[in-house]
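User: I'm writing a short report section on ligand binding and want a predicted complex to refer to. Could you take this sequence and zinc ion and write out the structure as tokens? A short remark afterwards would be nice.
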Amino acid sequence: MGGVPGAACATGGDGDMARVKKCRGMKWLSVAMVVTGCAALSSTAPPPEALQPIAEVRATMKQATNGVEPPQVLVQEIPGAGMYEIRNGVPVIYIHPWVLRNPLALRIVLAHEFSHWGHGHDWRCQGRIHECEHEANVSAVWVIQRTWPRLDGIYLLCTWIKGTAQGAQANSMGHNSQWEYEQFRAQFQLGENCKR
Ligand SMILES: [Zn+2]
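Assistant: Sure. The structure tokens for the complex follow:
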């Protein structure tokens, strides 16, 4: 992390897991864009039903970083499902309100965005945006396995990425979701449709 403003944006729509679309990517913004873009929207604290999963994932990340305080999570109508941003030097995670209505999507998005933080993704991702997204995808599996061991993190992430790759925004904001899907499947040796 550093002082350079950066955001890992995820775009998503309403609906169930199969329809979930997400652009998991680094979106590098100028200071002016941060001020006039996402950050200009009003953010609110997460509702009670989201507090427990957020607390659970923060506890995992805090343990993994030997006590470093993980970012706060705010709810905001961002252009996607989730977003990680370093704002004035402070890392913040945003979640779109629709994600809160889908418990699985919430956990996937939290795991992915907290992974960006865990990796210290910031300006160093410039020029290797796709690789940083892949890192966050892979680490999100670890986060899910550590935080919610009853969930199948590999399958959840794979189907999430696949849904993104099939979505209208698969290549938006400089992303290449099909590449990420193939990378993810290769990483975990998955067949077509995320089958083991
Ligand atoms: Zn991302």
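A remark for your report: The pocket of zinc ion is lined by residues 8, 10, 24-25, 112, 116, 133, 136 (CB under 6 Å). Residues 6-194 form one domain.
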